[in-house]
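Lecture 7 notes: from sequence to structure.

We start with a single chain of 169 residues. Read the sequence below before looking at the structure.
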Amino acid sequence: MNSRRTAFGIFLLVLLAVVPNAAAAKRPNVVFILTDNHGAWTLGCYGNKDIRTPNIDRLAAGGMLFKRAMSSNPVCSPTRATYLTGLMPSQHGLHSFLDGKYMMGPEAYYALEEFETLPEILHSEGYVCGLSGKWHLGANMTPQDGFSYWATMPRGGTSSLYTDPVILV
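Now the structure, written as C-alpha cells:
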C-alpha cells in the first residue's frame, strides 16, 4: 500500500471548527481527527520513534492528546456516532456500519437525526464547522449537524481512493 493511500485512510473524519469573528477569537479553534482502525501507538506524538508524523505531532504539541480514550465499538459508524453524541451504541442505536443504500438515494437517512451532536453544539456557539473525509452516518449528499463545509464520499467510505467520487458542498 502506498503512503498516499495510507495517509488518506488514516484521516477519515476531520471536524474543523473555526471561530468566525474577532469578539469570539478568545475561544480556541478545534480540529478533531477521528480515524478508523488506527492505534495511537502509530503516531510520534504518542511516543512512536519509528513512524514519522510531524504534522500531527505539531498539532498535538499545541493542543490536547487523549491518553485514555477507547473505542465503544470495533466498527466505524457506531464509534463515530459515540464520539459525536457522547452516547454509547446501546443509547444511539448504531451497532454496525450503515449499509450503502442509506448513504444516498430514496432510502437515505441521517442516523443521528434525533440527537444533539458536537458539531451542532459548536455551530450554535458561533463556530463554523467543516467535515472532510468519511461520514458513514447516512444522508451523505447534504451537510448534517451545522456543517458549513462538507467533503465526503457518496457511499460513506471508499474502497478505491483514486476513482471514487467526492461530494463537495
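The longest helix spans residues 76-85. Keep this in mind for problem set 3.
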